[in-house]
Amino acid sequence: MSAVDANPPGRPALAYRAGTHATFLRSMLADLPGETIADGPNHGTRPLAALRTRASDDASIALLDAGATVLDVLTFYQERIANEGFLRTVTERRSLLELARAIGYELRPGVAAGAYLAFTVEDAEGAPGQVTVPAGTPVQSIPAQGKQAQTFETTEEIEARAAWNALRARSTRPQALVIDNGVLELEDTDGTSTEAKQLYLDGTETGLRQGDLLLAALRRTPDAPLYTATGTVHRVEVDAVRQRTLVYLAAEAGVPAYRPIERFVKRGFEPIGLGEDISGVLAGGLHGADVDVLLEMSGSTFAELAAAWQPPKPPVTPEEGVFAFRARAGFFGHNAPQHSSLPTKADGSAFYPNNWDSGKASTIWTDSAAHDNPDADVYLERVVPEVVGDSWSVFTAPSSRRVYWIEQVVERSLADFALTGRATGLTLRDPAGGSPKKDRKLIRRATTAFVESERLDLAELPIEDDLAAGQTSLELGELAYLDVGRAVALTGKRADNGLTATEVLIVSDVVLDEAHTTLHFTTGLKYGYARDSVVVNANIVKATHGETVTEVLGSGDGSRTDQRFTLRKPPLTYVSSATADGATSTLTVRVGGLLWDETSFLVDRGPADDVYVTRADDDGMTTVIFGDGVRGARLPSGTQNVVATYRSGIGADGNVPAETLTLLQSRPLGIRSVTNPLDAEHGADPEQLDEARRHAPLAVRTLDRIVSLEDFEAFATAFAGVGKAQAVALWNGESHIVHLTIAADGGGEIASTSALYANLVTAIDQARDPGPSLRVASYQPLYFDVSASVLVDARYERPEVEAAVSTALLAAFSFDARAFGQPVTEAEILTAIQGVDGVTAGQVDRLYLVTDPDGPTQACPPAVLPARAAHWDGNEIAPAELLLLNPAGPTLTEMSP
Fold first, then answer.
1. Distance between CA 747 and CA 778 in Å, rounded?
2. CA distance 638 to 727
3. 421 in the same domain as 337
4. Could you give the count of Cα atoms lying within 13 Å of 85 in the half-sphere of its Cβ?
5. CA distance 712 to 515
6. Strand ranges inside 827-868, DSSP E
7. Could you report the per-residue pLDDT of 778-832, keeping only the tens digit for each?
8. Same structural domain for residues 136 and 150?
9. Would you say 546 and 586 are in contact if contact means Cβ atoms under 8 Å apart?
10. Strand 213-218 and strand 321-329: pairing?
11. Kind and range of the H or E element at 288?
12. Distances in Å between the alpha carbon of 365 and those of 24, 415, 426, 436, 610?
């Protein structure tokens, strides 16, 4: 059989040997008796026919054995050489590299990991509060045990501010109170109002107790009449953490609840340096672009703008606010003896002719003779020195409650109602203005005066709702102007499980409205968050793995045609970029101070082209190769005139965990600390053999142009940092949409805020027809559990066989082994189990998704566990699913023989 016949398509190795030692030796021994002498006197004879021995120690047989050995070695290497000539069967990296170069493909050198760095600016008194962090600022990781420290450098210059260290989500709003028919109501943001049931007060030392009376006195506008409402304290809760007090009001007819006076009012704003009113610009909020124009026209800083734009608080008179009363008292005469029990004069007439237990003299407004009180509208039962003018009072009787403004206070000695004593007199005014309305229901013996009013500071109303997953905006509790396109790190407790999570978002717009800023993002929130836990750090900048190195490569020699230099600090860093292969070298070479350009090949370059090529060997060493004067210019002669600047560091080692990039190697003045809020990601090692076998043909298949769905997949799969890709065409009712599902090397997510995502989309757009709409999204991982019974051969150790079965299943259903939308079948699980040495039989007992609550009680496993490609899910497109075995491994039990 010929070598071609022995090698059907699809085999991982070529069979290309004419024989082995054993077959060669057998063949020669078989032919030995028939060998004849070709010439000479013994021509035609068979002298070896009489050689009967076949012992290996016989000299003749030993010679044949040596010949068979030589043939065995020769055919072995012949087969290896043949295998090294084909992409599918090659085993040496160098062979694969040369085969790939034959079709214009260079093995991917890997790509540097990327991370977001969050800087904290010093906010101590006297600190500048604003720092420029230059591009290239190095930050080193704190390595875990057995790992090496990794250096990252910032990719751009940013302005960092202390005020942006910890921006918080807006968690309160003004308590907008109104009074309607004597009832205190809370006005909602939509303009509707409901009766207030509780009141938030500033501070924790309000001195309020159950049964205390509260008064609200409000005006809708500065010139409007004053309206009042009262309420009784039912319960008091102190919040020491937020330094506020929550007061619950008793349910009373006509008794109010709560509403702050201080509300933010929109006003016209005349910017600094501008002579025109731009209140129209402010309608609906001031967008980031408007702020840029405003600052440029006015020549002002944002801090000056913010200070000038603080909305004014409406003027608050002493009468307005929410008040507590620190004293209560009866009225003079309330403890007088019963009128009917008084003695009479000698002539039988009464000392006090008017009955103060009924009639006109029974109200608080008169003396015992039913005349108006002298020098004051009412007198309290005693001296209350804390009561002063320009304060509030509330008179409460069983059938009436009245609010009065105290204009003046006097102190008098009174002798009336068969009593004598000093008392405090109050001159009153009606809340609406003018003389007090003398309510005749305020009976002397049944009325209590609440006096010594004290204004209570109102806290803002808490916003209770959480931030929702998918939400694309966030209102901050302060004014902060951020650049559009700036990255911010949002940290908070997840609303679903209480765990702390962090995500990086990109600002797409900034809207300033009154005293707050609303940030709009390019993407929605990944999770929902408890509002009061959310903190935003806006001092965020991208960084990539690798440390900058500058070294003198050597001296140019114009007489030589083969000059090449090897970089002394490998590995050379390649960073993600929007090129066809997805990576760009950080190497720059200057000769005599002039920059030379890197090119892929010298063969098509002329003698005047100042170019060079780089080649990496199997050990990761990079060599810089210059032209020979025919294909590329020769190096000019000089001493130490060839200088390289590059970054060193690449691969998966750069995927360091969150909160480990904390060591500033050069600290900008004013920076307190730095960290990476998220794991560094998308660092990929140099391309391995199996990856190169898949990727090399893709370059020829697409030729850096994208036409078909297969081209989308091939282009994305060959892009540095991308591990898998799947393209499908979807119909939206009007046109086709190309949806591309992607995954990072190793199975990680490719977030839409990452540099890898942005570079991939840009590179695809540059290579494709701009007609079809394109959507790119990271895949949806789905994990499944499997329980199986395994019968182990009695000659094997059961624990070792079960461990091998677990390893085989994890490998068979790992990220590298599975495709998007590929289902899992019971048959392939059994194939993997029974392919392990020592397994006699196997049976799948349960097969279910990890998220299936009924999975553990499954009676019969399904034959197929489906997974879906990208598809419409309502009005949204769901990315392709990837079914993977639970990393915890399968559940294995012993099968009865």
1. 10
2. 54
3. yes
4. 8
5. 48
6. 839-849, 864-865
7. 999 999 999 999 999 999 999 999 999 999 999 999 999 999 999 999 999 999 9
8. yes
9. yes
10. antiparallel
11. helix 288-298
12. 135, 16, 11, 10, 107
Average pLDDT over residues 747-759: 91
The SS3 call for residue 671 is strand
Q: What secondary structure does DSSP assign to 333-365, as a single string?
A: TTTPPPGGGS-B-TTS-BSS-S-TTSSGGGBTT
Q: d(Cα 823, Cα 808) in Å, to the nearest integer?
A: 18
Strand-by-strand arrangement of the 321-329 sheet:
198-202, 244-249, 227-239, 213-218, 321-329, 448-456, 391-397, 400-416, 419-429, 378-379
Confidence of residue 1 (pLDDT cuts 50, 70, 90): very low
Boundary residue ending a domain (446, 481, 503): 446
Tell me, rounded to whole angstroms, the distance of Cα 100 from its chain centroid. 40
Q: Is residue 179 one of the residues assigned to a domain?
A: no
| Amino acid code (one letter) for 694 | R
155 lies in a domain? Answer: yes
- For residue 52, give its domain range: 21-83
185/180 Cα distance (integer angstroms): 7
- Residue 623 covered by a domain: yes
Question: Is residue 656 a contact partner of residue 113, using CB atoms and an 8 Å limit?
Answer: yes
Same domain, yes or no, for 531 and 496?
Answer: yes
CA angle 676/680/684 to nearest 5° reads 160
Whether 292 has a pLDDT exceeding 80, the answer reads: no
Whether residues 48 and 59 share a domain: the answer is yes
CA angle at 117 for the pair 115 and 122, rounded to the nearest 5°: 175
Q: Which residues pair with 208 in a beta bridge?
A: none
pTM (2 decimals)? 0.77
Q: Measure CA of the first residue to CA of the last residue in the chain; give whole Å.
A: 45
Q: Quick one: pLDDT at residue 820?
A: 97
